[in-house]
Batch of 2 targets.
Target 1
Amino acid sequence: CAVLCCAVMNHLQSDRHHHHHRPLLIIDSTKEREFNLQKIFQDLERTFPTPPAPVLFIAINRPLLEEHGTLKDESLLATRRQQQQTNLSAVLPDIVDGVNYVAIDNLRTLNAARQNGLWGGTVRVMEFGGAALQGTEFQQALTLVGGMVDYYLATDSVVFIGTPISSFSYQIMASRFHAKKYENYKYLPGGIEKWTNATMKRPEGFFC
């Protein structure tokens, strides 16, 4: 089936068909890195008003996100929300007394997207994760096989969005570029920008 793929790497936790059937991949996106999953989803919908596919596949380390994003005392979050409303211009720390509020918000954003979809509910959101390989012949190499699946989906996608400071993201972009797949974008806190085009002789160099 037609798939839209979004791979969000661990930085967020503070791991042939017709062209429109190919997936769209977002990897991780620090001046160069975005931690807010809600903002990533919003920029995705803003940049692509018409979704490339009816299913959004998200590759994200859910066990790690749940480890850091599960809040036992809901009153802590209520207090933080009140602080934000009292002073809208205040920049509150991401982690307070061991509570990772970025992970908490990202986990809730992910779960809401799983339940309600994106693009007004027209795009279904799905995950893969190592748990899907449990009980198979690949269960002894979950990270390796998962990375191979992510790489294949990314290189075969209709649009790729990554960050210029991730070597994994850069290698996908470079592979696509040399395969004459120029719909590659880099994700920055300020939004999504074009990364490659058909007039370039070679992709820009890697930096981090």
Target 2
Amino acid sequence: MDKKKNDTLDDVLKRLKEIGIKKISSDTHITEPNIEAILNKEFDKLNPTKAIGFAKILEREYNVDLSVWRKEFKDYVNQTKKQQEHIFVTVPGEEEVETKSGKLFLIIGAIALVLIAYGTFIFFNSHSGVSNENSNSSVVKEIKEENKQESLSKDESNKEQPQNILASNSTISDKNESFQAKSEIVNENNETVVAEENGSKALLKEENLTAFNENNGTSKKALHESFVIVPRAKIWAGVIYLDDYKRKQFLTDKNITLDPSRDFLIVTGHGKFDVYIDKEKYHYDDPLKVRLLYKDGDLEKIDAQMFKTMNRGKSW
């Protein structure tokens, strides 16, 4: 494409639109949203530090003149900065002063109510303390009298107890002998039950061990035979294995083969690629970063927050 100095900016942008956003993105590795914003002069969607560089890449790649576009973009950025730096100063009006005075009045009133309530509480406490002391002294006297009566009744009953105790002791000894005989029978029964339980537990352990060994033999088999990333353009890909959190990086336009028997995270610079797990194809077509989780033989697309959670709080 020959560079035409006399072409207007509209002519240049029209020629680039005719080439197509996808073709330009493939040639320059600039993302499609950025190319669309440049061609439509949507300055608010562009990064001020990168947009000028994108414009120069287009000039070099397609031999066009975008100096007018660059000047308009710089004017937009400068104007935006001035608007952001403008400071508005407001003076408090009469309503604000009235509001503050009203709040101050409420605070003073609340403090006065608290002081009144506290004084009332102290006053009633002092009077109730005197009445409590009087009532406490009368209660103490009543308790002392009750204790005296109880002690007298206990002394009388204790005199009659020795004869009753001798009679009851003989009865208790008879009961203890019969209880001991019953205990010997129960012990014999318990020994029989324990022996039977131990035999059944040993049999259960053997069955569980056999089942565990069979499960281990099947779990070691890989869920899939192959896992391949096929990029449609040069791609950066990062892989984090979840069993040891070791990282691998790739920058290539060739196929990337990973171990399907391990769980891992994938992050890519863009989403122009396909994934083949055995013969099953997963198609992706995203101009931005793509994050994937491969776990227990299943592949799913995840967001940045889920990626950080699975990666122990790290974005990469």
